[in-house]
Amino acid sequence: MRFSRKLRKLFSGDAIASASEHLSRLTHPVNTNCLLDDIDWLQFKDLRHKYPYRPGSPQINRFEDIVYWIDINVERAQDLWLDRAPPLRLLDLGSGAGYFLYVCKHFGHDVLGFDTDIEPLFGATTELLGVPRIVGRIERLTPLPEFGRKFDLVTAHRICFHRVGKVREGVEWSPADWEFFVNDIRTRLLTPNGRLLLDFNPRPDGSSFFSPELRAFFVSQGARIFRSKALLGMDPKVRPRFKQI
Ligand SMILES: C[S@@+](CC[C@H](N)C(=O)[O-])C[C@H]1O[C@@H](n2cnc3c(N)ncnc32)[C@H](O)[C@@H]1O
User: Fold this and answer.
1) Which of 116, 130, 169, 182 is the most buried (most CB within 10 A)?
2) Alpha-carbon distance 130 to 167, whole Å?
3) What are the tens digits of pLDDT across the range 110-140?
4) Which helix (H) or strand (E) is 26 found in, with range?
């Protein structure tokens, strides 16, 4: 890489935001011991015997690795300033094992998960972590269910629900599908200052989820895009901030 390009990368918006995120975590350390102490480790260990890996199930889903997942989810929460924010109502879509909401609950937030019940291990970990969850499925061009309340923050991490058909076919939601989804959340689920955080897996070749077309779409919706994440507020004309206190 040429020196000028290296220098540009070093001082790019993302690099500066990354450094500030890192600094913010360092200056506001979280003691994960209390989060770990509250977990019933024996029961967690037992889960793998009850729900052994299905043949062909992905190895990354070692959700009984408590320390690893607590650390990741503390960082996710810190990057949204949830360790410092006043109590918020949070909905996590595709909540998986429930660790993100467990951490958020520890920080005093009112949390709810939403996921399918295809993976029985997730139901069991969510229950052990004492996190409430509604079972359902996110479908293309279909409104989410009525949750009976609005949320200050709707999150989705390592999103999979936008895949249409089999993973290897590589078909996914179009910008029009995303527009329907974002609009549904904005109009029915978010409070007036509410935010929606979408965090995407990289693509199989390691590139960003945000193809030029998808980046343009999310930017047109007022998203603040940072690495794998798009943060959207209620008003497409106002770019929301990760920091909110
Ligand atoms: C890769 S896991 C991520 C779990 C968790 N968010 C995390 O980051 O650790 C994807 C999650 O999305 C859920 N999911 C996939 N498709 C879904 C759909 N159509 N509706 C709701 N949840 C879905 C899966 O069950 C799984 O819990």
Assistant:
1) 182
2) 31
3) 999 999 999 888 999 999 999 999 999 999 9
4) helix 13-27
In the reported structure, the alpha carbon of residue 200 is separated from the centroid of ligand 1 by a whole-number distance in angstroms of 11
Q: Which of 95, 91, 92, 96 is nearest to 58 (CA)?
A: 96
> What SS3 class is residue 103?
helix
User: Does ligand 1 come within 6 angstroms of the Cβ of 157?
Assistant: yes
Domains of the chain with CATH codes? 3-233 (3.40.50.150)
This prediction's pTM: 0.91
Cβ pair 127, 150 in contact under 8 A = no
Residues 195, 123, 80, CA angle at the centre, nearest 5°?
A: 25
Percent helix, strand and coil across the chain, each to the nearest 5: 40, 15, 45
Token pair in block for residue 76: 């996710």
Spatial distance between the Cα atoms of 208 and 204, rounded to a whole number of angstroms = 9
Please write the tens of the pLDDT for every residue from 30-47. 888 888 888 888 888 888
Tell which residue, 88, 146, 145, has the closest CA to residue 116.
Answer: 145
Can you read off the two tokens belonging to residue 200? 């995407």
| Residue 138 alpha carbon, nearest atom of ligand 1 | 20
